Amino acid sequence: MKTLTALFTAAALVVGANVALADVPAHEISGLEKAGTVQSLQKLAETAKAKHPGSTITDSELENEYGRYILKVELRDAQNVEWDVDLDAKTGEVLKDKQDT
């Protein structure tokens, strides 16, 4: 019986984790910016690009991770190296700056 309870608990945690991570729909972003919930995505993108001068953004998305908005930016630098830069969308803090492998 304990094994069955543990399995149900683990399944519930997995389902809950999937609900807590979500892409923010494009039509909601303007409202988040106006409310001051997130900084201007253009400003955040410039912060990401400043980490790798001469780079271009190849993709980006705003995600809500457990109530924290994270802007995930993929860059390609002048040497054709790809980078993943994650920023806290409220504070602008760089959370991750890692070469994409």
From TrEMBL:
Gene3D superfamilies: 3.10.450.40. Residues 40-97 form the PepSY domain. InterPro entries: PepSY (IPR025711). Residues 1-22 form the signal peptide. Keywords: Signal. Coiled coil: none annotated. This is PepSY domain-containing protein. It comes from Pseudomonas capeferrum.
